[in-house]
Amino acid sequence: MAAAVATPLKFTFSSSHGSTRRLQWRNSQRSIKRPYRGVITAKVEHKPPPYSLEALEPHMSRETFEYHWGKHHRAYVDNLNKQIVGTELDTLPLEEIILATYNKGDLLPPFNNAAQVWNHEFFWESMKPGGGGQPSQAVLELIKRDFGSFEAFVTEFKAAAATQFGSGWAWLVYKANKLDVGNAVNPVPSEEHKKLVVVKSPNAINPLVYDYSVSKLYSPTRLITVFQLPLLTIDVWEHAYYLDFQNRRPDYISTFMEKLVSWDAVGLRLEAAKARAADRESKK
Ligand SMILES: [Fe+2]
C-alpha cells in the first residue's frame, strides 16, 4: 500500500471520454494504482522499423540499428511504461501523453521518454532502403513555393540539423496555423499559415508541442485535429551517427538526405496534414 503524499501539479484536462479530470503527478514517491476494472491499459510498444535492421546498409549500419533501435529506443519505451503504469496516462494514446506531460513547457517526468518514443518511430519511418532523390510533384511544388528551390530547402534542412547544439532533432513541418514555440528555435509565430517550415528542437522536444493549448486540445474536440504535423525528421543525437560517422555529423546529415529519406512517407504525411488542417478549419 503506497502512502506517498501526492504533490499534484495544477494541470486539468478532459479525457478523450469528455469528463474533466485532474492529472496528478507525484514528484517523488508514487503510489501505483491498479487499473480500473474493465479499463484496458495500453502498453506502449517498441515498434520495429518498417524494414530489416540491415536494410539501410551501407548508409546506416546494422550495428547502429542494434544500438539505436535495439537499446536506446527500447529504453525509452521501457522507462515510459514504468512511469505511466497505474496513472491516468496509461490509457491515453502516445500523442496525448506527450501533450499532457509537456505541461506548457514545464515538463512532467514522462515527457522525455514519451516524446522520444514518438520521435524514433517517426524517424525510422522517415527513411527507406533506396531513399533520397527528389520528392513527389505535390511535395516538390510546395517546397519550391516555400523555400524557393529544392536545393534551398536541402541547404536549410542540413543547416538546421548541423547547428542544433547538442542533442535534438531537425524537422520539416507543415505549419497549418500559428506556432506557439516556447523552447525551440524558429519558426516565427507571425508567419503566414499553411506553409512548410524547417525547425530544430532540443532533446526530446518535437513539433507536436508547438501548437500546445490545453483548452483547445482537450475540449471539446479531440486533439488530433490541432496537431502541427511533422513531415520529416532527422535524429541528431550523437547515438544516431557515432558508430558510422564518429563526430562527422554533417556527413551523416548529407547521407540521410541523399540516400535515406523516404519522400513517399513525406508525401503521405503531407496529405494527412492537409486533411487535418481542413478538418480543423471546418470545426472553427
Ligand atoms: Fe535517437
Automatic annotation (TrEMBL):
Family note: Belongs to the iron/manganese superoxide dismutase family.
Enzyme class: oxidoreductase
Main location: plastid
Gene3D superfamilies for this protein: Fe,Mn superoxide dismutase (SOD) domain, Iron/manganese superoxide dismutase, C-terminal domain
Cofactor(s) listed: Fe cation
Record field: catalytic activity: 2 superoxide + 2 H(+) = H2O2 + O2
Domain Manganese/iron superoxide dismutase C-terminal: 136-266
InterPro entries: Mn/Fe_SOD, Mn/Fe_SOD_BS, Mn/Fe_SOD_C, Mn/Fe_SOD_N, Mn/Fe_SOD_N_sf, SOD_C_sf
Species the sequence originates in: Salvia splendens
Any single biological process term in GO: response to light stimulus
Cellular component GO terms, alphabetical: chloroplast nucleoid
Keyword terms of this UniProt record: Chloroplast, Iron, Metal-binding, Oxidoreductase, Plastid
Enzyme Commission number(s) from the entry: 1.15.1.1
Listed GO MF terms: metal ion binding; superoxide dismutase activity
Domain Manganese/iron superoxide dismutase N-terminal: 50-128
Keyword Chloroplast: yes
Top-level lineage group: Eukaryota
SUPFAM superfamilies (UniProt xref): Fe,Mn superoxide dismutase (SOD), C-terminal domain, Fe,Mn superoxide dismutase (SOD), N-terminal domain
Protein name as catalogued: superoxide dismutase
Compartments where located: Plastid, Chloroplast
Keyword Metal-binding appears in the UniProt entry: yes
